[in-house]
Amino acid sequence: MSLLALQRDFRLWLTDESHAAGARLGAGPAPGLSVYLNNYRYALMTCLSESFETTRAWLGDAGFEAACANHIDRLPPHSWTLDAYAVDLPATLEILYPDDPEVAELARIECALSIAFVGPDADPVDPATLAEVDWDNAAFRFVPTLDFLSVTTNAGAIWSEIAAGETPPPAQLLPEEASIAIWRNGLMPAFRTLEAGEAGALRLMLEGRRFPDLCITLVDRHGEEDGPALAGALLGQWLRDGIVRAIVTAQ
What we know:
Blueprint: H1 3-16, H2 19-24, H3 30-51, H4 53-59, H5 61-74, H6 89-96, H7 101-117, E1 138-142, E2 147-153, H8 155-163, E3 173-185, E4 188-194, H9 196-206, H10 211-241, E5 244-249
Antiparallel strand pairs: 1-5, 2-3, 3-4
Helix pairs in contact: 3-5, 4-5, 4-7, 4-8, 5-6, 6-7, 7-8, 9-10
């Protein structure tokens, strides 16, 4: 047997528990193959458990471990790093819990927070520089870890209560699909559920539009008195969140 054939059969044994592949490896290694298989599955289960502590708390140990076992059978590792194995669990949970969408959404929040935690560093804009900004031509640059998730349930509220050690609220469908902004503030990943108006405003600025464009949009929607005030309130919130890394003069 060539080394390549040996490696392929060993992989088949680990990922599919293929008895045909195990038999080709010979009778001598048979007892050791079970040890390797158990170690392989244990490593993947541990990876998922450490990556989705809040989802595990929501499902309970038995439900979560059953879902992970299904995921391990469904999808073997596909990256050089074991950390990447957690990325696809939300899709498995979506299949397993079609009538409980908060389960997959909880997992997506946890996954996105983990990705933000290891994302590129970027300091938020210094408030002391705001007085020097040319607001007539100002555009925002946001921290590179900023990302968005679409949710249909109150998964954000559930996650927050579980993380705080409190009793989470019952799962509920939202009146309409919402957006959750996720980023890293300093060393801590953070998220916040956005109202539709703020989500639209933030996406507009992410396109590179100028701050006056946002003001005009909000004036059209809310009037000449409330529009600019709302634009200022949104800017203040984004600065407090630490998601704006620079305010530049748009060309």
